[in-house]
Amino acid sequence: MGSRFGRWIADRWVMGVALLVLGYLFLPIAVVIGLSFNRPSARNTYDFNEFTLDNWRNPCATSDMCDAVVRSAQIGFIATVVSTVLGTLMAFALVRHRFRGRAAINMLIFLPMATPELVMGTSLLSLFVAAQVPLGFWTIVIAHVMFCVSFVVVTVKARLAGMDRRLEEAAMDLYASEWQTFRRITLPLVLPGIVAAALLAFSLSFDDFIITNFNSATTVTFPMWVWGAAGRSIPPQVNVIGTAMFAIALLLVGASSLRGRRARRAALAVPVAAGRPAKRLS
Amino acid sequence: MRTMGHEAPAGDLRLANLTKKFGVFTAVDDLSLTIPQGSFFALLGASGCGKTTTLRMIAGLEEPTSGQVLLGDRDIARLRPYKRPVNTVFQSYALFPHLDITENVAFGLRRRGIRKVAEQVDRMLALVQLEGYGPRRPAQLSGGQQQRVALARALINHPQVLLLDEPLGALDLKLRRQMQIELKRIQTEVGITFVHVTHDQEEAMTMADTVAVMNAGKIEQLGAPADIYEFPATAFVANFLGQSNLLAGEASGTSGRDVLVSAHGGRFSVPAARARLARGPVFLGVRPEKLHLVATAAAVPAGHQHVGGVVTDASYVGVSTQYLVKTAWGSELSAFSANSGLGGQLPVGTPVVAHWDPRHAFLLPREPGEDDRTTPLLDEPVGVLP
Amino acid sequence: MTALAHVPTGSGQSASPPAPRRGRHRLLPYLLLLPGAAWLLIFFAVPLVQLAAASLYDPSGSVTTGYAMTGAVGNYPAALQEYWPQLVRSFVYTGIALVLALLMGYPLAYGIAQKAGRWKNLLLVSVVAPMFTSFLVRTLAWKTILSDNGWLVGLLRDVHLLGPDGRLLATAGAVVLGLTYNFLPFLVLPLYASLERLDPRMLEAASDLYASPLRAFQKVTLPLSMPGLVAGTLLFFIPASGDYINAELLGTPRDNMIGNVIDSAFLVKLNYPQGAALSFLLMAAILAVVFVYLRKAGTEEVL
């Protein structure tokens, strides 16, 4: 008996610890969601007081917060488009072409991911100050594109490297010109990687604080607004935004995995419905 | 419906002095051959012999270093792949994973601007016996089914030449046999020139009208499968296509209609028609199934030639028993004995006499100093089903 | 027919391939790389040079009056002398957080990779999901959880793990906890990737060959997960040691890390030479730690 119980424990303790750690990871998320439905008492914004939907009805009660959210979304959108285009082009060059200076380019792509944000933020600030570039919306965009490009390259590169070159050869063999091959075969197959890279870039940009903080002057993004408010008092609407971000991201992930599964099932069902099993050889 | 094959000038596929170098490595070396229109042609060789490179040059996926690929009297060697009336069935198929079977098969038609594809696609899927599979994705098909889709996707374009790159390599043995028969049937039905690249000698022999055995970028021998098997041109072919017992000897010229050979102290003869040369260092070759074992020299039939030895190994493989016989000079000959129920098994250690009809032997050139090549190089005997 | 209509006949042009195709192919990769590489050069590499220059400015200048480039190497020892406690503290906090993260992250990655079965993908998404909300909002949630009148402090006081005036918020422990929390997923993901490739039959083989579970872990699992472990550790260590959000929101000025100092040097005191010198000191320290670590771990190829 004892040894059987010991075995049971041995088989499951890892999963037990794993679930506890997951609980730790989700604890703050639960608090954020909870606080988004909380009516704070006058004195203390952190304490659970009373359930309310007011925060969700008026997420923009503090209007400058919503301005900051919109600004973050705008910056995120521009930075995502630019960095996705630049990074995808680089990924194609790296996977598909031989050229001199590959090691240097790889280094240039790798280093921004290995450099502390603080160093990137301060160095960009000293450049902008030295070049007398006024800080604001566009310096933030420039900075965000800079740190997103590397992540886009890595993500698209992985997808591209996993792609079978023979598929393109087969397309060319089947009368598709270079452009048609790219349009009909390469692009659709790499697209999931590009989309993933774009989503990653957007979330990196939307959530960036440190680099933005050094290069924004008076332009306020959402993380910067929260930073400023943390010194005073946090309106519960911050948690509404936090919860909404969480929900949207979760929906995106859920929808993409569901779509994949449904496509597979639908395709399986058709031949059965047609009721025509393959004929045997005669 | 207008199709490519019908408009292009008909003709044979000719490779003229085709050469491909990768840096200092010569993959294909001054290759010239003619593949008649409508034939089933197999390029047979071990991996790395240049057969796939040759195929890719015909398809346009590799640019020749020099030489020509002629279709009829047009050189297509420098055309982009999509400008050639040639289609390929790729190794492991290269089906487009994001398109369903219908769109995979219709791909070539659509690229050439043909809108109404449904009827042709259905006809093609019927030809490869995959009716109703159109809406599926490639990943939902078995290996054999994917192979048929790859075939349909190429054939629907009515190419002048269909290239098949190890098309059955990914299938298991039973399915491979079945697809061999089916490919042959389809080729007969559509009448398109098939160029089939394979390392499987049995596959090449069952399917092709003409086989070219390639080695190190060159063609060692070209001909009908039976001709190559019965009378190989080189020691490489003799051992790549099936197994051979090759005894090192010296030919001393013709006497009447025979070439005289001395080997390992014995004197032998081979009909002049089965000798690649009449004088100098030679291999005297006998296929294992043409080598018969008897107990004493007295039992050797008249006209047969023989050597003595001792059975050192006997492997029972069902349809036959494979023997190794060690000769007095130390070489091991292999002999297959059909398991026909006549005669019993010979145990290891039995002294035997191995004999053959000289009309089944052949003489091949040999590098001076090269010894017997009698140890089987392949596990599976040709023509004897295991 | 279109495909064949413009096929040239004859074989006259076989001597050399068409030139434009070759030429375009040689230039194409550079054209593809140009915009991205230029962006990284101008906005990543050049700024580092500018930062290096700024760290050598005459410290008596100011942003408004301008700085003189005097090659003031003395900025470095001066900055180090003033702020070495914060620099050391950054690495001590990050080090403790890293150990905690390894203790939590390894079982989590291993559990998902090897034991989760069909829940694998769901659990993997769960590891990333907390990062879907804003970093700052998450950290503020910890502020709520750890607050003096929160349930956690109440509970700990009730069971006397915390004195009646004991606090969680505004302590070094809170900062370390925040660092552990915020960078844990960066550690888990690469670790998961290498543990996922681990064939469970290897562990069966190990136990068949007389290895106890502990031995099997030590001799098979751990060495095989080394690339993921090294990559995960670096992905945790580099951002965590430069972070100052946790120290600011969950700690007190006594818990300030080097990031807080650099932030205020650039944005509050407007002392660029000092901030730049501290940035380079931080980067040098990180590079030194990473280099020594990679040497020890013996897997340079991860990078």
**CATH fold description of the largest domain in chain A:** MetI-like fold
Could you give a short account of the major beta sheet of chain C?
none
Q: Any idea what the CATH superfamily of the largest domain in chain A is called? A: MetI-like
Helix content of chain A: over 70%
The count of β-strands of chain A is 0
Level-2 CATH architecture of the largest domain in chain A: Orthogonal Bundle
Under CATH, the homologous superfamily of the domain at 97-256 in chain C reads MetI-like
Q: Which residues of chain A sit in consecutive blocks of at least 5 with pLDDT less than 50?
A: 269-282
Show the largest interface. A-C, 86 and 86 residues
Tally of DSSP helical segments of chain C: 13
The count of helical stretches of chain A stands at: 11
Mean pLDDT figure of chain C: 85
Second-tier CATH architecture of the domain at 97-256 in chain C: Orthogonal Bundle
Give the CATH level 1 class of the largest domain in chain A: Mainly Alpha
Rg over alpha carbons of chain A? 25 Å
Given helix and strand content, the structural type of chain A is mainly alpha
Strand content of chain C: under 5%
CATH topology of the domain at 97-256 in chain C: MetI-like fold
How far apart the termini of chain C lie comes to 52 Å
Number of spatially distinct domains of chain A: 2
Region (Disordered) (chain C): 1-20
Organism (chain C): Micromonospora coerulea
Main location (chain C): membrane
Subcellular location (chain C): Cell membrane
How would you briefly describe this protein structure?
Chain C: Residues 87-293 form the ABC transmembrane type-1 domain. The complex is a heterotrimer of chains A (282), B (386) and C (303). Chain A is mostly helical.
